[in-house]
Amino acid sequence: LIGALMAAFATGLAIVFGARLTFSKEWAVWAGVALPLIIGLVLAAVGEELGFRGYPLRRLTDGVGLLPAMILVSVPFAAVHAGNPNVSFFSFANIFLAGLWLSIAFFAGGMPLAWGAHFGWNAGLALLFDAPVSGYVFHVPVVEYTPGLHRWVDGGTFGPEGGIVATIALIAGTLFLLTRQNAFSSPSPE
């Protein structure tokens, strides 16, 4: 829910600043497109969270400390997205910031929160708004996201993650997680 709300916030900001949503009546085909996409987004989120948070983040934290470990997993997390379509320096920086946010989610609620936030963000962008997710367009029926004129604001063809709207949403989500009572508690071993 946190990730989907953040995606909705970022997309809403993009719309305020010129992006558009158009709607169709293709509800009959939505489930046929959405169900396989949900499975793919679940697997992608689980794979990335296991690869970058969980055991690697826990062991690095034990060895080098919390903030250096979060940075050390967020750099390669961003780097694996460097070859995505329409990537820019801004989108790369936002994915790095997302890596920090997901690391904080891991410490605030363990792997379930990190995975859920990651999946919620991607599913919110793709399924609720048909916005590109890290540069990838999925063509989900019923709604279509069209970026505005300023790529630095709404991310352009990379999707909201490539613009300042995602930066704002990620900072807001990070601040929310940091205010949780159990932020930076020691998660159970994954």
Unreliable sequence segments: none
Q: What string gives the helices and strands in order?
A: HEHHHHEHH
What portion of residues is helical? 55-70%
Number of helix segments? Answer: 7
Report the strand count: 2
Main sheet properties: 2 strands, antiparallel
Gap between N and C termini: 22 Å
Which percent band covers the strand fraction?
under 5%
Instruction: Give the averaged pLDDT, no decimals.
Output: 89
Spatially, the strands of the biggest sheet line up as 1-2
Output the radius of gyration. 16 Å
Structural class: mainly alpha
Spatial shape: globular
Describe this structure in words.
This protein has seven helices and two strands, in the order αβααααβαα. By secondary structure, it is mainly α. The chain has a two-stranded antiparallel ribbon. The longest helix is centred in the middle third of the chain and has 41 residues, at 89-129. 66% of the residues lie in helices and 4% in strands.
